[in-house]
């Protein structure tokens, strides 16, 4: 495993009010010979919006747009659009994110799902389709859609505290059969709660899913779980140890200390690039050999 020596790859830009304070958790997708990064950004108003950056080699940023490409429009997300994940299915890009709103003066976070035509995305024509709430009014986050149907159904991983759960859909609107896939493990780095990271990667062995685990000490680390190709509720193996834990200064010190949190991973030949937020303050990347990510039982 190698952390990029140039980490962090994205930092706040003080001159841009919407991203002047924090830039962190990001979706990443490889299309058209580039890796496209949608990152969560915050300015002084404390509202999360999404910014866009592009890299051709996965590490050096070649382009970064000066304005957000996605921001709250609906009442239920007035306090922010957080932690995006992207999945390409046929020619449509689906984005899940956490919508942060309020109910009875309490913060309410829930999953929201939208999409955009791949061509529009590549043309930077940000014509997103309607935003729908798969689990309206229910506290839920860390949602990501699998890149293909399984048994003729769309599948999503999401998090009903403290477990990673699954849900199925026929048309990406109504979701059903919610069941737990993995939960926290006692006396482990993932003892408090777990949540999916980026889009599951399909391998011969199964679905390679990177996830975050939180310990009782509130340290956020990353691990992997391999799910059965035909039955994503069946766990084939799960890493005993984290594949990434906060050790560098940019992971240990920041808005929220001791956090590595990922919403995006990209497989490039035999390597996987994992994009992750450091201490909820900056965006970083680490490269893994595919082999080292496959969990041994
Ligand atoms: C989670 C999410 C993430 C954040 C993490 C650590 O609940 O809100 O966006 O990175 O906490 O603070």
Account of the 3D structure:
With 297 residues, the protein is mainly β. It has a single domain (2-293), classed as Tachylectin-2, Chain A. It has 3 helices and 20 strands. The strands form 5 sheets. Strands 13, 14, 15, 16 and 17 form a 5-stranded antiparallel beta sheet that branches. Strands 1-20-19-18 form a 4-stranded antiparallel beta sheet. A hairpin with a 2-residue loop joins strand 7 and strand 8. It is globular, with a radius of gyration of 17 Å. Bound molecules: beta-D-mannopyranose (BMA). Beta-D-mannopyranose binds at residues 25, 82-83, 220, 256, 259, 261, 277, 280. The site of beta-D-mannopyranose has 9 residues, from strand 6.
Keywords summarizing the entry:
mainly beta, 3 helices, 297 residues, Tachylectin-2, Chain A, four-stranded antiparallel β-sheet, binds beta-D-mannopyranose
Secondary structure layout:
Elements: E1 2-3, E2 22-31, E3 34-42, E4 48-55, E5 63-64, E6 80-89, E7 92-103, E8 106-117, H1 118-122, E9 141-145, E10 154-160, E11 163-169, E12 175-182, E13 193-196, E14 201-203, E15 206-214, E16 220-227, E17 235-238, H2 249-252, E18 260-268, E19 271-278, E20 282-289, H3 290-293
Antiparallel strand pairs: 1-20, 2-3, 3-4, 4-5, 6-7, 7-8, 9-10, 10-11, 11-12, 13-15, 14-15, 15-16, 16-17, 18-19, 19-20
The structure holds beta-D-mannopyranose.
Beta-D-mannopyranose binds next to strand 6.
